[in-house]
Every structure is written in C-alpha cells, then in structure tokens.
Amino acid sequence: MAIKLGPNEYGKAQVHLVRVYRDTARHEIRDLTVSTSLRGNFSAAHIEGDQGDVLPTDTQKNTVFSFAKEKGIDSPEQFALELADHFLATSPVADGARVEVEEAAWKRIDVDGEGHDHAFVQTGGGTRTTVVNVDGRGSERTAHVVSGLKDLVVLKSTGSEFHGFLKDRYTTLQETDDRILATSLITRWRYEGTDVDWNKSFDAIKALLLQRFAEIHSKALQQSLYGMGEAVLEQFQDVAEIKFSAPNKHHFLVDLSPFGVDNPNEVFYAADRPYGLIEATVLRDDASDAGNAWHAIPGFC
Amino acid sequence: MAIKLGPNEYGKAQVHLVRVYRDTARHEIRDLTVSTSLRGNFSAAHIEGDQGDVLPTDTQKNTVFSFAKEKGIDSPEQFALELADHFLATSPVADGARVEVEEAAWKRIDVDGEGHDHAFVQTGGGTRTTVVNVDGRGSERTAHVVSGLKDLVVLKSTGSEFHGFLKDRYTTLQETDDRILATSLITRWRYEGTDVDWNKSFDAIKALLLQRFAEIHSKALQQSLYGMGEAVLEQFQDVAEIKFSAPNKHHFLVDLSPFGVDNPNEVFYAADRPYGLIEATVLRDDASDAGNAWHAIPGFC
Amino acid sequence: MAIKLGPNEYGKAQVHLVRVYRDTARHEIRDLTVSTSLRGNFSAAHIEGDQGDVLPTDTQKNTVFSFAKEKGIDSPEQFALELADHFLATSPVADGARVEVEEAAWKRIDVDGEGHDHAFVQTGGGTRTTVVNVDGRGSERTAHVVSGLKDLVVLKSTGSEFHGFLKDRYTTLQETDDRILATSLITRWRYEGTDVDWNKSFDAIKALLLQRFAEIHSKALQQSLYGMGEAVLEQFQDVAEIKFSAPNKHHFLVDLSPFGVDNPNEVFYAADRPYGLIEATVLRDDASDAGNAWHAIPGFC
Amino acid sequence: MAIKLGPNEYGKAQVHLVRVYRDTARHEIRDLTVSTSLRGNFSAAHIEGDQGDVLPTDTQKNTVFSFAKEKGIDSPEQFALELADHFLATSPVADGARVEVEEAAWKRIDVDGEGHDHAFVQTGGGTRTTVVNVDGRGSERTAHVVSGLKDLVVLKSTGSEFHGFLKDRYTTLQETDDRILATSLITRWRYEGTDVDWNKSFDAIKALLLQRFAEIHSKALQQSLYGMGEAVLEQFQDVAEIKFSAPNKHHFLVDLSPFGVDNPNEVFYAADRPYGLIEATVLRDDASDAGNAWHAIPGFC
C-alpha cells in the first residue's frame, strides 16, 4: 500500500479591488473581489516542500491588481479569462486555472435629478458572479465560463401553493393553496463558448429570471426554478445549462386567534433556520460536455 | 457595604415579521425586525426570582405580531410608538419602554416595464432604522424618536483630500490631495416631537444626505459628515440633532511600479481591517434635552 | 438658531496583532485586536477641514504595533492604559482617549502529553475584553478600566424554572418548572483604580461567574445574572460594578406526541431569533462615580 | 433541441437540536445541526408541480427531532446513517440521501475542581462534522461516511519557511526561513465502510492532526497538510483518503524601523483578506472508489 497526493489546488482568495476609470470627469468604477487558483502536478511542493514550481499566491495577487490596469475590466468574465490564461502561461506544471469574481454593484448618487460624476452608492438586488476554468494551453486549451448571481432575495406575497405531497407518520405540515414564497437565490449558468457580450447577457438573464419568478404561479419552489431555467435556455442559445440553489425562506402565518384577531394571510413570521433548500439543474439535451466548468463551485449538486 | 441592582432592561430581540397588505390585487409589503424592551423596578425578578412584575418576552413577541394586524404598519416610527405605549400600559412597574425597528426595503419586480402586483425583489442602499423611547404615562409621558439608516455604502472616486495633519514619530502616512473616500454609513437623527410625516421625512433626509456626500469637496471624512449633518438641520426643523458613525473604508492605491506599470489613481486595494472610525454629532444650539432618546443605542459616542 | 458640533470621536478600529515572545525556545503568544480613539475639541477638522489637530488613525495603528514591542503586552489592560496615556500626551486638543482590546485565547498543542514549544490551537470558551478610558493628563488624569468577557456560551440542562409571571391578553407561554437555560454571555466589570493584577483577576472572575451560573437554581435568567454579579462583588473588592447582556437562547421542547413519541425534556429545538435579551447591572452602594468608564461601550443599558 | 431536468436535490437545512440524556442526575448533552436531502427522479415536482413524490422538508425536520429520541445520538455518524436509510425507505423515487451534521462541543463547568452535573460551557477548538451519503436500498445499498473538522485554528510561531519559489515579473514577495504559519483548517476524511468506532476514531484523528501540524518543520503549508494527511492514512487503516482546505492566514511582520524599533519576528499584523487558500487530497493507492462520498460537499477540489 502506498500513499499519494490526489487532487490539489492553491491560490489567492478574495483580492478586493476597485478600478476607477477617470479618462473624463465622469468616472466609472468596477468593484471586484477576485480569487485565483492553479491545479496540476504540484507533488514536489506537497511531498518534498520544494517550491520551485509554485507561483506564490502573493504573486497571483500582484498580477490581479496589475491586470486591472494593464488589461482593464470590461466585464468580470473577460478579466477572469485573461488572468486564467496568464497564470497557465506562467506556471509550467499547472494544467488548469480557476478564477472566480464577484462584482459589487454601484450606481451614481442622484443630485437634482442627475447622476453625479464621481459619487456612488452601493445597491443590493443580487451580486454578479463568474467562475472561469481554463484547462491546457494553445491547441489543447479549453475554457469554461459559468456566470451567475447570488443574494438575489425575492418574494411573492401570493401566487404560491403547496399541497398534494407525500405523507408519512412524521408529516404534520398543513396543505395550502396560498402562501408566501421567498428565497435568496444563488444561480449559475454555463455558457457554450466565450464569444459572448458578457455584460449584455448578464443584464438580460437577470431581468428574465426575475420576470419569470414573478409570473409563474407556483406549485412549489422546484417548479418556479425549473420554469425560470427553462425560459433562460429558450431565449439564450449560448447558455448550455443553469443551476439553482434556493433556500426556501419560510414565512409562517402567525396564529393570532388566541388574541381574538383574524389573520387572513397578512402577518407572517420570517424564520431563519431551519430552512428548505432546493437545488436543481435545467439543461439542454444537446448541451456540450461540462468538463471542468463546475470544478470546485460550492453548494451545487 | 451593600450590593444592589442598577440599571436593567429586558425584552424580545429581533422579531422578524412581514406584513402583507392585500386589500386589492396590488399587494404592499412591510418587512420589519422589531426589538422591544422594558426598564424600571424589576428588583423582585432579579433578587428573589419573583416574576410577578415580568411581562414575558414571549408575550412581547406575540404583541408585536398582533399589532401588525390590529394597528397596522404605516411607518416604523408609528408602529414602535404604539408598541411602547402599550407595553408601558401593561407593565405597572416599568417606567420606560424602548422599541427598535429595522426595515428591509423591497421594490416590485419589473415585468414588461411595469411593477408586478405581488412579486418583489429586495434592494440594498441602506436599511431604515428607528429607535423609540417612551418614559412614563399620561401627563408624565415623554416620547423620543431617533430614526436613521445603516449600511449605506457610499464612495467618491475623487474630490477627497487628506493633508496638513498632526505628525509625531509614529507618522508614516503620506499626504494626498486626491484619494478615494468611502464609508458604510450609520446615521441616526433625533426628532423634536412626534408630529412628523415619518415616511416622507425619511425619504427626504436620505436623499439629502446622499446629495451632500456627493457635493462636498472633502478635506476629511469628518468634514463631509459635518456638512451632511448641517444640511439636514438646516432643512428639517423638526430634527434636533444627528449622529454619524462612519468607518473610513480605506482604498489604498496599489504600487504597480515594480511591474513597470503606472497607476494614476486607477487601481485600489479595498481593505477590511483595521479601518478608521469617525463618530460625530451635529446639533442645534437650542435643541431640546435629549433625555432618554439615545438610551442604549449602540455604537455612538 | 445656530448649528454646532456635538460629541465626536475618531480612531483606528480593529488593529489585529500577534505578539510572539521568543526569548527562549518555549514561545508565548498574545493575540489582540485593538481599537483606539480620541475625543475632544476637533471642531476645526469637522467645520473647516483643518487637520492640524488630527493625529491620523494610520499613526494610531503604527503606534499600536510599535508599543507591542516597545512596551510589551503583559495584559490587555496594561497595554490599553499605556496607549491611552500616550495618545493624550501626543494630541494636544484631545481631552479623552479610549482603547478597546479583545484577546483571542490560544493553548499549546498537546504532543505526547506535553504542550508544544511553538505550536498553538485557538480555544473558545469566551473572549477576554477590556475598555480603557482615560480623561485628562497629569494631576487631572482619571483612568477607568472596564474588563469583561464576550461569547461565553453556557447552558444548564435542568435547574431552571419560569413561572408566576405577569399575564395579559397576549400571553400564551406555558409556565414550567424545568427548562433549559442557555445564554451567550457578554459581561463587563468596572474596576476601582488600576492597581490590579489584571490577568489573575480576570481568570478568577471568569471561573467564579461560571461556577455561580452552574450552582444557582434559576427562577429566571435575571436571577442567575444577579447572583453571578453579587458573587463577583462579594469576592473582588476592587470591582465597583458589573454589567450583563445576556440573550436568552431559547431551547423549545419539541412536541413529538403526533408521532406517538414521548419527550420528557430530552429533545429541544435550539432557536436563533427572536430571542429574549436580559441586561442588568449589579453594583455596590458605595461605588465610585463611573465617570466616562462606560463611554461608548455598546449594548449595555 | 429539448430542455430537461438535470441533477437536483432538496431537503431541510440546519435543524439545530440539543439532546439531553438525563437518565441519571449526571446529564449528557449532544448539540447537533443537521441538514438532510434527497435526490432522484423528482421530475414531476419540477416540471408539472406535482408533489406526490415529495416528502416535505418539514417532515424531514420532524423526523430529525423524533429520531433524536427514538434512535438516540451515539455519534453524528450513526445518527446520520439512520436518517439517510429512513428517508430512502420512505421516499420511493429517491435514489440517494445525504445527511450532514455539525456538532458543537461542550464541556462541564468546573465547580471546586469537579465537572458539574448539568451545567456546561461551549468550547472552541474546531467543530466536528460528518456527511453521510447513502445510495440505493437493500442489496443495492452503498453508504459513504466522510467525517471531519472545521474552524480548527492553529498557529506555529516558528518552524515554518517559504523560499525557492517560482518567480516572474509580478513577484515581489521576499523569501523567508522563519515565519508564522497559521490556518483555520477544514478537513474531511472518507472512511472505508461503516464498521467504525466513530467517536474514538474522531478523537484520535483530531489529536494526530494537531500533533503532526506541531511537529512538522514546514517548508510550505502544502507540505504540512500532506504530512498531516499521510500520518492519518498510516495510522488509520479504515480511512481511504483525507482532504484539506486551508486558508493561509497571513501574519505579516510589521516594519518598525521607521520608529527606530527592531522587530526580530516578534510583532505581526494578522491580515484578513486576501488570503492564500491551499486545498489538497492525500489518499491510498488502493482506496476504494469514492462513489458519491464527496457529493455536494462544498469547498473541496
């Protein structure tokens, strides 16, 4: 019996940078948190402590900052692809690179009905994400882009049912044909190829996901997610598959009858834990092989 | 020498409720997290373990939920005032009540250019807060309302200097006439009286704070805060004072010169800790006595 | 009507330092997170943007690091007092300084039954804290030390009752003579003077608080807290008063009867929110005036 | 082109329960947070909104609570295996079940040198975890147990080097032969089979991991992790593989020379972000196929 090194990966996590575009008095900003990592045959580092093949995580961090100026940030996806290719070119023993980006959203502060030139307020409504995995170089190179959203908190105050479910001796839940449906959505979609208008695609997919969440009369969170994913695949031919991880943020109707007060679906207790957790994938029959596209992406089945 | 009970307070913290208004097909929602507490002569509970004077925190929670239906939620301030008065009426030995509310902001999901009737997405851009303190009953009653905002994250990409500061042997900071200024603002303002259009006042003060942050050419975060507070006091006669707690979210210019790359205020490292913390009060000369208005409000000098 | 600057304060928050003592092969470490601030007449900075009186927070940070070597860290209290006095000596317009310290606890890693010389594992069981406030200089100087603990999570599986409480129309809580009592304790005690063996005193007070929590048959969390505080005041003459902020971490007995399963106080649901919050002060009749001892300490009534 | 449902999973996350054993006056407690989920052919729920195959997450929660009494909690692993088998027996269309458990550690409060019968204080030093995946039933059944630790924060104040690494034009890091090495370890190991003394095995593996971290003179975090994993595999024949996810918690030596103060590896700034992140697997040559053992475990490559 022998012991050996298995899958391994290393890099710099959460380099938080703000890039200011100040070519005119009307500034633009991009606010990215970038994590980079390399994988491959790093046995010498693990087994003998020999760092000759290891590009330090400190150097990876420096590169992220410098590329923000050298290459600029047109989109998280483009930026991540440039970094991944660079790290593979620099690190001979690496066979794959992963770059993950989260982008905080800002809008201009309103002054007398107009957006200010260089003052911004951070907005919520979901964080844009991307994970890029590149394997190999030159003619062997394959690149995967998985973009998405996290912390997109949505709620329907009606138009949601839940009944007809499987029952056993531990079932106490009452069936309902009118409840609150709410979730803090994490979703990621895999693109076919990299010839995409990343910013335009992101905006359109986000808008469509919200619209379908609103429109679908829900018989369960599963059904809402499937319908949202189906719409994305129907309208975006360059999306191969889409995954959802959706906590069911329970809103329990409060029983006010002990106080002689009626509560016709008006007052709810918003609970924290435990919560339902629904995860689902919607994909095309003819989607390309995902390869390493979903490599080390947490929280998705 | 004798040992005795000093200041004490008890209540239910963080009752998270969602109130749906569904009188028409176009629903409205309010999403509040409410904390209530009572103070007064609760010596028997502490010293003898006698609960005869103690209205359980569980009952306080029930009341919050029931009032959401019975009284409705026109504003966090009105709701908090009704609860505080109720608890003082119910608890004979209490001499003061405190109710704290945080309101999560939601907007309608856009479907074909129109807001949906019953589907919502949570927005960021600062959380609305209020703390109400009521002391006494009947002719002895005094009520204080301190409203505010937290997690209002703002940034200026220029228009901020910092120089001419005091130096000692531990000073290494370079002076600058152009830096990023950013903070995650907590602010609270104290109203004179309670005859206020709470929702309208909140919206207008928030807008003014943002506008002034944008407009003021800053020589330090202190100066920005003072100017923001001054504007609020000038325009809102029913505001007696305003307090700020503002972390200076440092954005350090990255030195790219080792890589032969120029960085004319374009690429910044957004640091987490340590951070500067600036706290300031702006008030009227003739402001009324604050009494218990700021009682047990954390994080303000 | 004029507008003016009220109470204000500024400093550097959360300087996280690790100090290694390596005079022998058997290293010692101290792991402190330090926040410093100054208060006084900083009107020029706020109103005119003149920084001539402002010792930058960056300099405060540098000083914290340098003092860790120059003065050493015998205890959080001694370290905080040295910093506060230094900042007052350096900043002419400051009239008060506040230094807050949290210390993470580490113990030696066990190797073959002995603690290793230079390898450590972080432990839980409560974080040691101190807040030092110094006002004035020379013969006018007054210094206050408030030390304590946070995140001390304790639980009694029996020996806790709750009954005989005040009831109103919103009361649904059942009385009980046997429940779980649990809290995540924050406590702070004010010392009379500064001639104290800080480390010995801390260890002894922590042990006594735990012991009394265990021993007291509780009729309410209030009663447990009072008894714990009373014991500290009885045994530690240099403690003037002690404050507690104690969330009642509710453990609800789960009703298993629908499944034909008996549950005689054996299976509990540990809830997050809402929670009861009990705050209390126990003090000596003849305690000295607290002055600024509790200045800007959050979360205590 | 057709659109279809891909991998999916649903369940109840984070059921927090405390189980009290009170058969004698000397109570025992177990504090578990349990997440359960089912996977299989749930197309009807997703595509048609038909819940006939769906055992509600509410029922899963009820079952967790009831099993804490019916089956008892001898170890997280045994409890998770019983739940997984039960859910597969109850849900006809499920083909796999996953149960994840985190256990909070408590110890008896010391009173006069002895542990109290029913009063406990929570300790730190790492949280015990397990993830159980069961696929199929009866003769088709396969069960995988992956146990581990998270939040195990360890530090070496010397005995750690980092030099000889790959350099490129973005390298600025200085080589060092003496630095602080610190991490907040997450580790998980996969057992061969389920005939294991779970509690004894956990305690021994934890102790060994700590010991090896202490003993190994480290040329990089990678090398420490590999050595820790190798030791576990050498001494525990029923462990097939072990994975690590280890943030390199950077401790930067502070330059005190501007203040004329020497700093021979004594004062360090403990940074938060960015951080290095090292992930590695150590496994046996002849380890069994992992099957679904690592299914949906976040944060491991």
Assembly type of the shown chains? homotetramer
Rg of chain A over CA atoms, rounded to whole Å, is 23 Å
Assign an overall shape of chain A. globular
Largest interface: A-D, 87 and 87 residues
- Low-pLDDT stretches of chain A are none
Helix percentage of chain A:
10-25%
Number of helices of chain A: 5
List the strand order in the largest sheet of chain A. Answer: 1-2-3-6-7-8-9-12
Named CATH topology of the largest domain in chain A? Urate Oxidase
CATH 2nd-level architecture of the largest domain in chain A: Roll
Q: At the first level of CATH, what is the class of the largest domain in chain A?
A: Alpha Beta
State the end-to-end CA separation of chain A. 33 Å
Spell out the helices and strands of chain A N to C: EEHHHEEEEEEHHEEEE
The percentage of residues in β strands of chain A lies in: 35-45%
| CATH homologous superfamily annotation of the largest domain in chain A | Urate Oxidase
How does this structure look, described?
4 copies of one chain form a homotetramer. The first copy, chain A, folds into 2 domains: 8-140, Roll (Urate Oxidase), CATH 3.10.270; 151-301, Roll (Urate Oxidase). In chain A, β1 and β2 (28-40) form a beta hairpin. The first copy, chain A, has helices at residues 43-48, 57-70, 76-90, 198-215, 221-235, and strands at 3-21, 28-40, 94-104, 106-111, 114-122, 127-135, 142-156, 181-191, 239-248, 251-253, 267-270, 275-284. The longest helix of chain A is centred in the last third of the chain and has 18 residues, at 198-215. In chain A, α2 (57-70) crosses α3 and α4 packs antiparallel against α5 (221-235). The first copy, chain A, contains 5 helices and 12 strands. In chain A, strands 1-2-3-6-7-8-9-12 form an 8-stranded antiparallel sheet. In chain A, strands 4-5 form a two-stranded antiparallel ribbon. The first copy, chain A, has a two-stranded antiparallel sheet with strand order 10-11. The model of chain A has no long low-confidence stretch (mean pLDDT 97). By secondary structure, the first copy, chain A, is α+β, with helices and mostly antiparallel strands. Helices cover 23% and strands 40% of the residues of chain A. Chains in contact: A-B, A-C, A-D, B-C, B-D, C-D.
